[in-house]
Each structure stands twice: as structure tokens, then as C-alpha cells.
Amino acid sequence: MAESLPTRPPRVGLFATCLVDLFRPAVGFAAAKLLEDAGCEVVVPPQTCCGQPAYNSGDRQTSRALALQMMDAFSGCDYIVVPSGSCGGMISRHYPELFEDEPQLARRARDFAGKTYELVSFLTDVRGVTTVDAAYEGPVTYHDSCSGLRELGIHDQPRKLLASVRGLELVEMDEADVCCGFGGTFAVKYGEISDAIVSKKAAHVTASGAPLLLAGDLGCLMNMAGKLSRAGSAIQVRHVAEVLAGLTDEPPIGAAREVKS
Amino acid sequence: MSLHPTTPAFKANAHQALGDTELQKALGHVQGGFIAKRAAAVARLPEFDDLRDNARDIKDHVLAHLDLYIEHYEQRVRDAGGHVHFARSSEEACKTIVDICRTHGAKSVTKGKSMVSEEIGLNDAIEAAGMVAVETDLGEYIIQLRHETPSHIIAPAVHLTKEQVEQDFRRVHTHLAVDRDLSQPVQLLTEARGILREKFLAADVGITGANFLIAETGTSIIVTNEGNGDLTQTLPKVHIVIASIEKIVPTLEDASQLLRVLARSATGQDMSVYTTLSTGPRRAEDPDGPEAYHVVLVDNGRSAMLGGEFEDMLRCIRCGACMNHCPVYHAVGGHAYGWVYPGPMGAVLTPSLIGVEKGGQLPNASTFCGRCESVCPVRIPLPKLMRHWREREFERHLTPAVQRGGLALWAFFASRPALYKPATALAMRMLGFFGRTKGRFASLPFAGGWTKYRDLPAPSGQTFQTAWRARRGGRR
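C-alpha cells for the assembled complex are given below, as produced in the milestone run.
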């Protein structure tokens, strides 16, 4: 594939995901910086949601409509890159399933799926990035979000890039690969069970001793940050892209933006 | 002890389980023990993933030709002098077994561990017919004393602590010295062993399940770690095997392939301590064995799964790895699932067997973390099958109205980018403004399901798309 690449920089459509779009634009900017540093041209087509909430709620019709909308919006891109293993997995693993019975659309979905990557795996596996130009002083711990880990095989990539951040020390927590209890609508539909699961996760995060928790999915991060702050913890929470891009000016997830005057 | 599912009350069951401190203590052991042992066993066998592919293919092959193999199996059992009975439903299966017991004038029946016997409510049927059924697997024996159902398919009493078991033994075994020491697990084991030994010797009929039924030889195979299955099936005059139809595999070679993944996935053992094969009743030259050998093949809804979107579930070899690795199971234990089969495999199988109207909570109560699928020895795509159930529910309007309404509202905006952008930009500006000093919300209208348990981090205020266009100008 490498020799057939055009000489112009690859045109990467950044799909921020709805959660990043709505709650934490800093992750989108961090992703854009990392992509541009990796020699890509970044575009941000108008976008809403990949359709995963509908898909996982059994609403195939809405998921199909949103998948078609996504494929139209990003049609001019060489790659689609997503700062989320969950939404990335939705596109690259599940879009083709949505159109299984329609050969033409299925082919289109497969092509689209084949061009879609989670951010960190795109940087390392496709662009061959091995180091980033960023600094962060101190220990951090990293949570493996489920879809990224088990659908997309993302485990070593973020750790490799984090190792190149100047001053950063990665402290592994116990059960880093166990679900945080978010699960999309699960967190609300089965709030009490979700709470039990995220409480265990918060205990492991705390036991790691690291004052900063990183992960690659904003849903999981908001769940863990929300639990940690509810429990009165001072542990900070950020998307891994923010640290890799060296863009940590934004207050951490769930932290105050303004001091009360 | 009840066949009546409490699955529709899953949330209430879960609530109770989360508040049960003894249960929570016991569940801690599931997480530690099983997971680490499986991982170590898998690490010792580099070809493990290839074996999983093989195991999947063997089961798929059987399911595609199940009628043929059942016919062949039945013939081979008869050739060996045994009898095969077909049962379409729980009632038929129970009646068949009770009739066999009656024919032989049975008073006492010993049982090896069998989940399908739980499924059909066999113990109740035996007792209703005036006979005594004694569970001989230690875990099953314990829960029988407590009038409970198994909370795990291979470790039925995993929800109990050893202190609880000690209390039960003191309550029931009143003929033994009151001041005996039962503080160590081995003492509990020794006591149960002594009592069960008498039951084994007194039994008229022994009932076991089967891990595999071999079509080429008419053999049934069980695996145990206690040897209770051997005593159950060799000492009484009559041995009844109860098994569901998908337990059939073509050859002994296939069974040995499956055995290589079964114990490793279940307990992290290379093999279970006992793997026992039985083919027909005692032959003239055999030193021991039953005089009569019956197999009751139970359908109970399984043939309806063949050829459909839940057929993959029939590959299940009941190792329990999915529940051992499930964060939801770890949180609430097996009884919360409300019927016979808990955990991810139960979440798929239960609606197939008792209907999605009653079982529909279970496939919804999953985060789709995918850890179950990643450890399944026969590669059942459990999250995908749970999602299929959600689709069936959605199509039939069984999805709760609040969820459906929320989804419809969100879908309305998400499928209209021109509306979505200004609407979300405004909403986030307001949320961001109100949340700016704390950075999070401890409560928020319409978000109570979230904020009851955790804070909701406040948005930055400007959406990414708005901010991007502001910063990057005309460049999209």
C-alpha cells in the first residue's frame, strides 16, 4: 500500500465523535495536532454521531441512516480518524454488518471501514509514529477502553507513545483492561450496577498512586472522572491525546474552568 | 429450586445482590481465582487460540448435521444395550426420568451436577413423585441444603463463604458432634464426603449430565473434579444420563479436542481430575457398572435455535469462562439473573429458552465490553447475540418507552446536521456556563440516571465543530 500513496499528504477526516464535539473540544484539537505532526492534512466535515447508541439499542434503521450520513460526509477523505476506540470500532467493525444483505452498500461500508482508524493506532500502525514531541512531568496511569482493546487490538500503541513523552512515567494499575462500567446507555439504564463497576475501577486508579488518569475514550473518561470527583478524589482525568499532543492547558475533565469570584 | 424465572425483576435482584455483604465477599473469589488460573493455563499452551478455532468448527459441523448425528448416536447407544428417550419439553423430560425411576422401584436417587436438570426442574419432579434426590457435587450438595439454585454453571455455590457453609452443615448434620472443628475447608469437605458416601451406597438410581455425547460410539462423557460422577453412575442399578441435544459430537477425537479447551477455560486446569466415559450398561465381563443405562435427550427450545441467528449459542460447552470474566456478573453474582443460566451465556440463552418477554433484561444488562467473547473457547460472539436480542425487542416495541423516546429525540437531531449544530452549540454553551465554576454537575434535570451515582463533567462550552471553524476559518 505504501508505494501507491500519493505524494500529497493524506487527507484525514477527523471524526471527533459526538461526545468530544459536545463536551471536550480540546480532544479534537489535540487529535488534529497529532495528525498534522504526522504529516496529514486534517479536515473536519460537518458531523453528528456514528450511530452506535442506536445500534446498541437494537435500532438498526437509525443506525443505518447515520452510517450512510457518515459515509457521505467523509467521502472525500483518504482516512477517517477517530479519537475513540468505541466509535472507531463501530465504524470499522460494525458498519459492514449493517448492510450485510445489500451487496453494493456492503462494499461501500467495507471500504469505509477499511479507511477508518482509532487515533493512536492510526498514528503508530499507519503513519509509523514512534515518538511524540510533548512533555508531562510525573506519573500517569492508563485505562484500556474495551472496544479499542478488544475490537481493535489497541494496547501497546498508546503505551509506546506515552513512553516518549518527556518526564512522563506510566504506572500500570491493576485490571487496567477491565471495563469501567460505562457501556453507553448501560450507565444510565443500569446505573446501580454501573456504579459498582466504576467504583472498583476508581479504587484501582487510586491504588496506582498516579495523580492523572488517561484513556482513549471520552465516554469512559467521563464515567471515571464523574465517579472520582463524586468520591472526593483529586485525581485528574484526561484523554490520552491531550497529553500526547502536549495540549494540557484545558482544565482536566470535570475540573473547574473558572475560579468563583 | 424454582423453575419460575425472576429474570423480569433483574434490576431489583441486582439491587439486593449489591447490598448483600456476604455475597460481595464471596464474589471477590470469582475475580481472583478463575481469571488468573485460566490465563496461566492459556499461556502454557501456545496453540490455544488454534484449538479454539477447532472447537468452534467441530461444534458448527455438528449443528449443521445434528439430525444425522443424533440418529447415529441413538443407534450406537442401543447397540451397547442402552435406551435413548427424546424429550421435547421440561415436562416430558421430567416425566420420562420419574417413570424410569418408578419402574425400578427407586426410593433414593443420587445426582451428579447437571445444569439441564436444573433447567427442567428435575429435583422437584423427583421429590413430588415421593423419591429423594441427593446432589453429590459438593457445591450442589451445599445449595441443596439451603434450598437454593446454582449461581454459577460450574461452581454452583460460588456465592457462599465458607462460614456460611459451616453454619449450614451444623444446622443439617445434627447427628455429628457439636464441638467438631469445621473452620477449614478440608474439614467441610471431609464431612460432606462421609455423608455422601452413605448416600452413594444407598442409591437406586444415579443421574448424571453429560459434557459430550459421542455419536460414533454411543458414549457419554462427564468431567468432574470430585469423582462424585463416577460413584453416581457406577454404584446404583440404573444410570440415567440427561443431556441437551447439542451435547453430541461426532467422534472421540472431536471430544478430546474439546476437552483440551474445556478445563483450561473453566478452571485453568489442563484436564479436569476425572474424565469418565460410559457406554451402555454393565457387560458380562465388567467388574462393575449399572444394570440399566438410559439417556434422556432434551430439546426444550434448542431445535428452534438451529438455523437462526442464535444458533452460535448452541456451541456453548458450559465452561463458565464468560461469567468468570464478566464485570456485571462480578458485581451482582448469578442469582440476580433470575433463572438457570447466568452471565453472558445466560443473557443470550435465557431469552431463547423462556422468551424475550421474560428474559429481555439480561441481554440489555451488558456494557458490551467484549471480555466474554475474548475468552470463549468456542468463539461465541456473545455481545453480537445480545445485540440481536435488543433488535428483536426494539422491533417488537418491548424496549422501555423512556429509552425509546430518548433515542428517538437524539436520532432526530443526529440525522439532521443542520439542526444538530446550532441546537447542540446552544445547549453546550448553557451547560458550559452553568458548570464553569465547579466543572461538573452533581445533579441535572433529565440526567438523574447518571448523576445519582457520579458527577457529570461539564462541557467546555463551545462545541468542537464551532471552535474548529472559528480557529481554522474557511478551512474545513
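Chain A has a mean pLDDT of 96. DSSP finds 13 helices and eight strands in chain A. Further analysis is deferred to the final report.
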